[in-house]
User: Fold these one by one.
Assistant:
Number 1:
Amino acid sequence: MKNRDMIDALNDIDFDLIEDAGRVTRKTSMRRKIARWSSFAACVCLALALIPVLFKPSSPPEEGTPPSSPYMENPPVQDATPPPYMYPFGYDTFDEFKNAISEKNEKTLYAELLEQGAGDGRTDVFKSFVRKFRAQHMMIPCIDGETVELSNREGFSNISFFASEAYNLPWIFYYPYVSTGENFYIKITYVPDYILGQMENPTASEVIRALSPNSPNVGNLGERYEKIYNKTIKLYDREVTAMVCEYKDDPRNSTIFMYGDLLVEVKGKPDVWTAQWFSSLSFDSFYQ
Amino acid sequence: MTDEMIVELYWQRDERAIHETELTYGGYIRYVAYAILRDERDADEIANDTYLKAWNSIPPQRPLPLKAFFGRIARQLSLNRAEYNTAEKRGGSQYPLALDELLECIADKDAAPDAAELIALRDALNAFLRTLPSDARRMFIRRYWYMDSIADIAWTFAASESRVKSTLARARAKLRKTLEKEGFDV
């Protein structure tokens, strides 16, 4: 038997073992855990110290009245805590974007992120995202199978690349050309493998629940939403179960769906971006 | 699209099968190939070869789950390419290093094993892997299935490189003993 036979035999080991090992995402070392908990403990101490100052009653409560507890009415939702804001990278053309994420130039992006205070963890997530995106040759929106035309609004980037946005994931925002000038966008991210590995053909609602159990979803409206529901939508090359979010104070809807391993959100007015428009939408690699 | 639907497209000889495979498993296939070959162009070629091989083997096969099927094809093709690249002194693949490490587990003889021997080896590997503690098992598979570098594994497991090396060395020693007990020539 030759050594290569061992490597070949490993090829056929049980798939659950391969999946299990492939799902491991970066673990947190004990030192980092201690540092994280120390910061958390410090924040709690500070918050406790500030409570009597910030919430000092203007007049003493009447006897027998239970003290009010504003915290218990609206307990903080951990997942809703926004990540620290980092300026997105902006590009006007797909070629410019392609050049920025190329193997040659990617280091500049990571250096900028670190400068913005992203930290190693966020930068590492961003790195894996960039490499996966590059390996798939930049997935971009297409209309009727053709690359979408970008917006070209003076002073605004046509493509914004956020290192950390919704659900603490990197997102790419594409701003297609809109004759009405509406702030319409299509944004995409990759669902992490450890989430996809747990589910078979998940819907956007299921993925979001796994990513962030407390975030608004079907059956959990939150404060900003009028309605959230699932709806079957026909795209150019497939049908998807989309999670549609109608806002209380925004005429635009968010239509969120899975496309392969992409999580996609289309935000626009439902009377403009109709079922007919969705039936022309697909995603494909920018360069083959 | 479900795995069953993609398989059906292959059976109908519908070329959308390739497109759907690319969308659903393209990233995974390239990940497996890139880990072994460390070259994006090679990984792209492996992805295309994987689709071709799948096209030629379905039908008659109906492999499920497809992720396992494509992962194995991509790995096998990548290993072949890595062997060629190593002979040509190309690329920064982890393949020759991983191969060297496994030298201590089995005797490197010229005699080619028969099919029964390979099946017995696969079964012994499965049984051995299930006896390892979870982190050691994952590190072992990341090193010898995915061909991740020691530095990458250390990063993933938030461990030092020396800890990864010693965990792998202990696992290999245990594998050697297991194979010896099973009657393999070590």
Note: The longest helix of chain A spans residues 30-54.
Number 2:
Amino acid sequence: MNKSNTILYLDGVSVSFDGFRAINNLSLVLDKGEMRAIIGPNGAGKTTMMDIVTGKTRPDEGEVFFDGQVDLTRHDEAEIAMMGIGRKFQKPTVFESHSVEDNLMLALKAPRSIFPALFHRRSAAEARRIDDILGIIRLGDKRDELAANLSHGQKQWLEIGMLLAQDPKLLLVDEPVAGMTDAETEETARLLKDIARDHSVVVVEHDMHFVRELGVKVTCLHEGSVLSEGTLDFVSADERVVEVYLGR
Amino acid sequence: MITQRFFSADRRIAVTIVALLAAAMIVPLLNLAVSPQSAFYIPPYIVALVGKYLCYALLALALDLVWGYCGILSLGHGAFFALGGYAMGMYLMRQIGSRGVYGNPILPDFMVFLNYKELPWFWYGFDHFWFAALMVLAVPGLLSFVFGWFAFRSRVTGVYLSIITQAMTYALLLAFFRNDMGFGGNNGLTDFKDVLGFSVPADATRSALFAASAVTLALAVFVTAAIVRSKYGKLLMAVRDAESRTRFLGWRAENVKLFAFTVSAVMAGIAGALYVPQVGIINPGEFDPANSIEVVIWTAVGGRGTIVGPIIGALLVNAGKSWFTGVLPEFWLFALGGLFVAVTLLLPKGIVGVWDSWRGKTKALRAASLAAEAGADAEVPQPKIVRSAARTPGAWSATGSEPQPAG
């Protein structure tokens, strides 16, 4: 398969933990600029797939390529993050003892070594970028608030904002609307659609209503491999998908 | 609100630095220039005692940089302190020259006693102060760098890291006890005569050493505060609170920790070097794991994750120790253990943390009553912890709130 126009290319990837095959011959291709929703029952391997892409877990076999040519299995988390893959965790993970602004400042694209950080002075460009992101994630009025004091939904947005600050090419977003109110869910869908205009995005989500809102191609994982792929209507009409979800 | 918060923290650090610099001038003055009959006279033993406490405070501050701000609970910081102390002790031994009991101009007494024929290679250079001073920084710095390099790269965290730091200091304790290590075995290094040409036991020298300790501590407070305020300092706390988040943002958490650990070890080494001439001896007992644990207690009592806290903790606990061991010597360890348990249960943020939350509450109450008087239902500031330390109270290990995604 030609991978020149892909942002993410997984082919025949398998990984097992203590004999359990979490990912089983998984192949998945994401084109540049595409947004993809990934669904699947618990234990389908969604988070493990993200672990493989971000360098947290090494696959036992298979190819993982980023941007058509970079072999991700040869790099670790920090290197992969610097190449332009941002990841939002399932459980919102922000720096709780820092202000919203400082959270973004630590995520902003900049040299990632000790001495520049030690003698760092905030530039006007950085301040502008932080203002922009605060606007995008609708937290402008919370910039001095400690992240610990944000609501669950606001933490999710802050974490998405931190990904944006990294200026990635590809965002991996794990369950962005878990624990959100309906209004927040709608807002998040709008936010992600905004972001998808100039980024490639992979969203893992259980919430079908939210997935429908996104209106993008859907991949359904089951037992570590792709079960079905297509529009949400196509996938949800698929016999096998119904079967794994309803457990017939 | 935020700016106000930072101002108050800034002011506290400024006050500490000024107080230390003032003590560096006033205490020697009251010791040297005031007649012993005067009520203001400070006797030399107090000068030496408080000077020793200041070295402990520097050690506690060093520990706080890694424990309070990065969640690395080192139970081996006493080792870096002792290594700095040994480097200084070696210089002081070489200064004795031919005034030793055996009168050997090159070999220290214990080497003559142990039938050394010539000076071991690692004692070369220690007759120069500059070389010894360099070693005070380099030896603890290098050990912590190599140790941290392996430990942090292998992602050893939490209680496992604490255990291997403890093992490190214990291994050094056993090594330094051996006579053929060439560091004086279990007697260590003592019987010092001169430091930089001044007599060690003289009152003026003691006052000068006190002043040097106070000034160094003030400098360390300044440097630590600058580190913690910088973007790097924020990163340090971010690694403490959510290490994997920092990795997925592209930071190398192991390098972040390694830098703080090395800086901290160098600070501990300086503390040891200032300590040795003031107490007049350095022996392997300083490597005792119990010493390192005591440092943890000082820091916890004062308040980890604050800069002033560990200093207050070290001064108070050691003053308490001096008093307690005079009155009820056999119960001191029980008191110390009880103190640690009590602080862990009742004051997880230490004295400074309690002070802060108390201040925060009274401020909020005052604001609330003012607002009530004015009859306006203005927004009432919530009582908040004023500093940004702290994860879960009582969570002593370095395991943060890492997400553990399940398949």
Note: Chain B has one domain: 2-373.
Number 3:
Amino acid sequence: MAMPEAAIAASAVPGSLPPAAEVVLPIAGRGLVVRRGGRTLIDGIDIAFDGHGLTVVLGANGAGKSLLLRLLAGLVAPDGGTVTWGGTPPQRRHAPFVGFVFQRPVMLRRTALGNVRYALKAAGVPRSMRDAIAHRALGDAGLGDLAGWPARLLSGGEQQRVALARALASSPRALLLDEPTSNLDPASTLAIENLVLAARKAGTRIVLVTHDLGQARRLADEIVFLHAGRVLERAPAQHFLDGPSSGQAQAFLEGRIVL
Amino acid sequence: MQDLGGAFGEALRLIVQLDRDLLEIVGLSLRVSLSAVALAALIGLPLGAVVAICRFPGKAIVVATLNTFMGLPPVVVGLVVYLMLSRAGPLGELGLLYTPSAMIVAQTVLVTPIVAALARQTVEDMRSEYWEQLHAFGVGTGGMVATLLWEARLSLVTVLLAGFGRAVAEVGAVIIVGGNINHVTRVMTTAIALETSKGALDLALGLGIVLLALVLGVNGLASGLRGMVARHGHA
Amino acid sequence: MFRRTFLKAALAAVLIAAAASGHSAAHAEDASFIVVQSTTSTQNSGLFDYLLPIFTEKTGIEVRVVAVGTGQAIKNAANGDGDVLLVHAKAAEEAFVAEGNGVERFDLMYNDFVIVGPAADPAGIAGTGDTAAALQAIAASGATFASRGDDSGTHKAELKLWQAAGVDPAAASGEWYRETGSGMGATLNAAAGMGAYTLPDRATWVAFENKGDLQILTEGDTALFNQYGVILVNPEKFPAVKAAEGQQFVDWLLSEEGQAAIAAYQVDGQQLFFPNAM
């Protein structure tokens, strides 16, 4: 879990990435297959995310979007195929460089600040630096006034912002988000989207799962379209939204139900 | 049969007079049982959490064993510890038999499975909520054990109270390894057993009421603590 | 493999912590003390509470009494868990010495057993004064009899009395013959609750506070004689035995002073133990 000296120094400076964090890119899956109870949920996916930018993974419910994200994060082991970070299987000590935000935020029974500090400790950031980094991460998320609040007493939107600030505090090289705004009100959604865009601008590689087309239009540089456990399309956002090549994607964009 | 009024009268008299012998016995009961619960917590909480968090072959057997050992008869524990600590036993050299230490050991053996089994259940319920998030943070097994125990702290206070109740109320183990020696190893329960065997049923029941008051006091302290934590919104 | 190491470490931690905790509070290690394995009758009658402070004041030696049934006391001492054995079952005591567990057995004192029963006396034994006849009458009437049933000195004495009366109570076990498997006090509580006959030693009986309806019905027969003996546990077999202090206690009990102290102990103006070491 130890973090190289250079990484520690770099993480104290916002906007600059720890060079060691580059080791997690590309995040790649080859020949991924997941079966559950006789059904094939992920059916042979080859995919890789490298460099910069924001990819939105689109698809109907049950297309396998969340599962693909969990596979890439190393949270679920595939039945077939391999996941690699920077060419090697995901290692625990690299986990802090791949941030993950869940649909429902998991708040520890501590203050908002305590939650961020916990993640920094897990990332191997020295104790003396955690407070300053955590305060700045919460401040960036507009939560400076709530730092001392018990995290579980915050509203759903505030909790999700804490979760995002917590994931970004350790300056990850990549950030995976699983429908982070699907339970939130418009104001909270906007706040989250602005934070995500700021992270993208700072150079973080972002993969965001959603079935909210509007969100895809607002955020995406690139779109991956999933259907029935397969990648049907991967294209620049404008290109995909203007004219998808598959019938399923066309149907999805038109709001029709595709089977 | 003596009436319960007599017993309450005795209990009141014992408490009002604050008899030195009674204080000594109450003090030893508290010291022995609290030490045993502390040791059981030290062993049982991490053990329960590790079993809850780790997936390993034979886990179901370990869980079943833990649950079964919650029902260990105190007399059997006392006997086993006696055989270990007896001069003729493997640990006889330590000279612990008929000392409060022996009673602490016996009660620790009695309470640890209870703490471990209940902690296992509590932590396993939390595991499903936290595992992915902690894994994403890069937290390892050791870190998860510590984190989930801390996250479960409110429920675990109740677990420890259950252990304390079991320890302070049992007589079978401490009377065998302690010997109920006056001023040395006499605790509330062995004193009750002794007074019963002397036919002093009022006094025995009175001591029983004092024991209940003691447990009530400890529970009160613990729930006060819980309340404080809960008021700070960490429930 | 890992788990075994962990368990060992945990066990060691418990023992160390427990030892440390015990060390701090019990004035155990600094003051000199001996452990006496003895019977409930001597403890419950209050004799030890009277006797031991006199000895401790004189010698500075604290005496810790583990009061259990004679059978268990002998077994504990045979494990080396005690320095002095003070019980009442002569044959078992002599066997204890013969096996090398004790140094030498001395007669210490005696009291007597009595047969107590409900005032209504369904077996009609009051005033017989003949133990064998009384027991035969109880068996014949089928009136309930509560036995210790715990291999204690009193239990052994009771079985001998049945044998002498030519009655096999084991045949009626669970019917009119009830074995409580507990100490004298618990058995007396049971007898008082069931309205049963039972055989306590006089010391326990006099000091017992829950007599209820029970009263003495048969006493004074020489067959009811109850001899106590005292033995130093053999330090050659058990090096942990505090031989010097234990011997001092035995010597004092057998001395004129100790014997006088035993004779002086009374409950309700009644002498409970009669010294006979001299």
Note: Chain B touches chain A through 20 residues (CB under 8 Å).
Number 4:
Amino acid sequence: MQKGLDLKAKENEFRELKEFIDSKRDTKGILMQTLHKAQEIFGYLPEEVQKFISIETGMPMAEIYGVATFYTQFTLTPKGEHTIGVCLGTACYVKNAQLVLDKLIKELGINVGETTEDGLFTLDATRCLGCCGLAPVMMIDDEVYGKLEPKDIPDILNKYRK
Amino acid sequence: MAIFRSHVLVCRGTGCSSSNSEKIQKKFEDKINEVGLEKEVKVIRTGCFGLCEVGPIVVVYPEGAFYSHMTVEKVDEIVEEHLLKGRIVKKYLYEGSIDEDALKSINEVNFYKKQKRVVLRNCGIINPEDINEYIAKDGYMALGKVLTEMKPEDVIQIMKDSGLRGRGGGGFPTGVKWSFAAPNKADQKYVICNADEGDPGAFMDRSVLEGDPNAVLEAMAIAGYAIGATKGFIYVRAEYPIAVHRLEIAIEQAKEKGLLGKNIFNSGFDFDIEIRLGAGAFVCGEETALMASIEGKRGMSRNKPPFPANKGLWGKPTIINNVETLANVPQIILNGADWFRSFGTEKSPGTKVFALGGKINNTGLVEIPMGTTLREVIYDIGGGCPNDKAFKAVQTGGPSGGCITSEHLDTPIDFDNLIALGSMMGSGGMIVMDEDNCMVDIARFFLDFTVDESCGKCTPCREGTKRMLEILNRITKGNGKLEDLDTLEKLAVNIKNTALCGLGQTAPNPVISTLKYYRDEYEAHVVDKKCPAGVCKGLLSYEITDACKGCTRCARQCPVNAIEGKVKEIHVIDQEKCIKCGACIEACPFNAIIKK
């Protein structure tokens, strides 16, 4: 887990999170939404943020950590500047998404779930993105790239390398 | 109200949006303003048209001109020629929609001809972000009828009579489910819409939510009235941002119009709906896990009974229905149970939406009456496999389903027939595979998925699926033994019989069905150490043919220096050193390297 988040420097972010928690005090079962919000604000869920939620809501830290680690969308480590998600849904898989992923692993020199040393890319293998008509598909941030072939990868990556 | 002579419908479903339909819509609006047609032509964003393969799609009415493969660049010409001068730009039309130079009506296009759109009736027709368009298509009439003319027990009776079965996969009769929850006394009951569409390769629920969100809200309110609930939750995947956004808009507009909230239609009935987001856990599609997740906990399933109808969300009586199931409800109320039974089969009335994908020409969303055969769906609607490849199997039911072979293609699709074939309806993913797909690898792929998604609560699922995956990994790497196949079968039966929830109980299905129908492929992997489809890397060998010109490019690309040969002489791959990465194939300009 990332240590030593500068609490002072993140004062505004914590205030925003507190406002969200305060606005939902009457709503039942709010932990998931709080974690979504926190991740939107901080980009990930460091220990300090989980502690903050624990203190604010009175929920035990163990429960918060349990939920944060159960769901794949929550992350405890910071992500790279761009997140690449290669769809490994069935429709993409039967159309050779694995070869696209292999090419990315080779090009970036990292495995799935890792971030490049320069902090530019994080590589994820995702569940079905629901645009099976474009299979095989990958997303870089919010941009969708469809009908991919491994040879398309270097050019696409270069667009983000500047 | 302004009247327009022409309407330009731009598909803003996920598939088309991913290939730029937002920019296309914007370009249409700008160009129409530029030529001064903004009072005559209206641009409308709609949900999915279904034929995602040829997207982005734009349809211009009143002619019904079906433009496919749209790009921003084509917009100028369409506006100037078609909208301004009334000349349809034929070269940009979808070729399946033209018949001897004349325009076919969309219902006559092969892809749509055999379809019957009940659930998708508004998708691709109305603007999902404007409740008035839904109301104009009889929206909220069913809710009005229920609240002002019917007793809750009458609503349940009509649902029972219709024979509607749960479209999320289980196939449990919806009316019966509601009747379990109705008599339970409680200070609060809940209606949950399960929009946690996790099956890889399935996107029907997403398209309904994106194309016709109000139908789902209306149905939830009807269900609430029937069982005596005043609160509803929609549990939707966070991976579906467009669906979430449109649901938010729909809820807000419905509240403004008094179609949700307090005292709806002055009947004294209150109903409110809240959206809850998932966070990427397949198991949350299972109803008890889903409820745990709404409560803000880890999404782990629990034993049933108690059933949700007795003790559900926060211990209160709850019904959980899938998106597609709910989207049928208002139509059944308006048109009656007999109307609904006029489609489909005796035991599976109505229609079913399938997400057709994989190795098929017309990828997309199709809605067919139950009882249509697989062959009709794959060949007449789907157009068969591309590149003249041979059809091998169709996979239904996602990670819980199985593969169906070509000899069973004439089976009429319904809940019971698919189970008899060792697969299941599932939520509606239908993935077609051709001769290039390895069935052992597909089984491994699904097991890999369930191992990853198992919540870990019960041992058979947590440990059992893992052991099965280890065996499959071994087989696909060429280290399998013949006994492994028996072990797989034994494990599969044990897990099916002992796992806690639906995820574990159905997890072995992909292995069982492929072992049953494609045992020869498994045997080729373990006995001959060959992958007949040429997919499993560990079993492939790369070889250089006579077409080699000795350009040395492959040798320079090989990361392990496994290729030897002199300039202008045929090169050779050292099989001992080769790691089968495929870099040489990519590098060769003469297609001289083959994999066997």
Note: The first strand of chain B starts at residue 6 and ends at 11.
